[in-house]
Amino acid sequence: MHDAGDKNMGGARAVCPVCSMLVSRETRFASTFKQRRYYFCCKDCKAAFDGNPFMYMNV
User: Fold this and answer.
1) Span 3-13, pLDDT tens digits
2) Three-state secondary structure call for residue 53
3) 34 and 54 Cβ atoms separated by less than 8 Å
4) With contact defined as beta carbons under 8 Å apart, do 19 and 2 qualify?
5) Per-residue DSSP letters for 14-32?
6) Contact 2/40 with Cβ under 8 angstroms?
7) Is residue 57 left, alpha or beta, with left meaning phi > 0 and alpha meaning psi from -120 to 50?
8) Domain count, the chain
């Protein structure tokens, strides 16, 4: 379910690495991997990334 994390899209934005949706950096769905912060549109995208972050890395 894509719910844009938080409805507030003000401020800095990021792209969800799982589904490429534009999200606020203030979202409650975020993870840190290899000293970089990633932001997600929903809990399902965060869980997918957390389960296998290498699958979503742009190499």
Assistant:
1) 544 555 567 99
2) helix
3) no
4) yes
5) EE-TTT--EEETT-S-EEE
6) no
7) beta
8) 1
The residue assigned the tokens 């190499």 is: 59
Residue 35, classed as helix, strand or coil, is coil
Tokens of 45: 């995208």
Provide the domain limits for residue 40. 13-56
pLDDT tens profile 38-49 = 999 999 999 999
Question: How far apart, in whole angstroms, are the C-alpha atoms of residue 52 and residue 23?
Answer: 20
**Cα–Cα distance for residue pair 51/47, rounded to 1 Å:** 6
Q: In residues, how long is the chain?
A: 59
Report angle CA 39, 53, 58 to the nearest 5 degrees.
Answer: 80
d(CA 11, CA 13): 7
